[in-house]
């Protein structure tokens, strides 16, 4: 049960730090079960301790990465703010659409980098780079309207 749970943890999109924390929980549950099995004095008690240990290990939930979800939210918030600024500008509909496409592409690229990150530091770096890319998209005055 512990091996299967650790394999599931390894296969997840969690960062190295998040994986280590979950694996520590698995180890603690396994150690606790081993101690209860060693204390057992009857076959029934051994079976019960084993069942409780397996249930404890299986009860450890392998979730999605909270660090990655939080980073994606920060990037999404930056994209929303930039899109609101684009909407509030005097740009033509076509100019707004072109800028919003850049925002979408920057957000998608940031989300992909966040997903690829394997450590909390790499997640933070991908988040920062994504926010900077979005914030770097300049909302200018309409060149079409200026020319008219």
Notes on the protein architecture:
- This protein has 148 residues and is mostly helical.
- 80% of the residues lie in helices and 0% in strands.
- The radius of gyration is 25 Å and the shape is rod-shaped.
**Structural class designation:** mainly alpha
The helix fraction, in percent, is over 70%
**Multimer state:** single chain
N-to-C SSE string, H for helix and E for strand: HHHHHHH
- Radius of gyration using CA atoms only: 25 Å
Q: What about the largest sheet?
A: none
User: What is the 3D shape?
Assistant: rod-shaped
Q: What is the overall pLDDT average?
A: 92
How many helices? The count is: 7
Low-confidence stretches: none
Instruction: Quote the distance from N terminus to C terminus.
Output: 72 Å
* Strand composition percent: under 5%
- Total count of strands: 0
Detail the topology: elements first, then pairings.
Blueprint: H1 2-11, H2 16-39, H3 43-58, H4 66-88, H5 93-116, H6 120-135, H7 143-147
Helix pairs in contact: 1-2, 2-3, 4-5, 4-6, 5-6
Short summary:
The chain is mainly α and 148 residues long.
Q: Notable features of this structure?
A:
148 residues, rod-shaped, 80% helix
């Amino acid at each position: 049960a512990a091996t299967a749970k650790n394999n599931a943890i390894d296969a997840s999109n969690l960062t190295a730090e998040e994986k280590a924390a979950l694996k520590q929980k698995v180890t603690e549950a396994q150690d606790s079960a081993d101690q209860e099995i060693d204390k057992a004095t009857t076959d029934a008690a051994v079976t019960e301790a084993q069942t409780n240990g397996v249930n404890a290990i299986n009860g450890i939930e392998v979730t999605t990465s909270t660090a990655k979800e939080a980073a994606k939210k920060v990037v999404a918030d930056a994209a929303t703010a930039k899109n609101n600024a684009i909407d509030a500008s005097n740009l033509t509909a076509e100019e707004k659409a072109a800028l919003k496409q850049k925002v979408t592409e920057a957000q998608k690229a940031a989300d992909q980098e966040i997903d690829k990150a394997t450590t909390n530091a790499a997640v933070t770096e991908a988040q920062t780079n994504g926010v900077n890319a979005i914030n770097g998209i300049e909302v200018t005055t309409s060149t079409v309207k200026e020319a008219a």
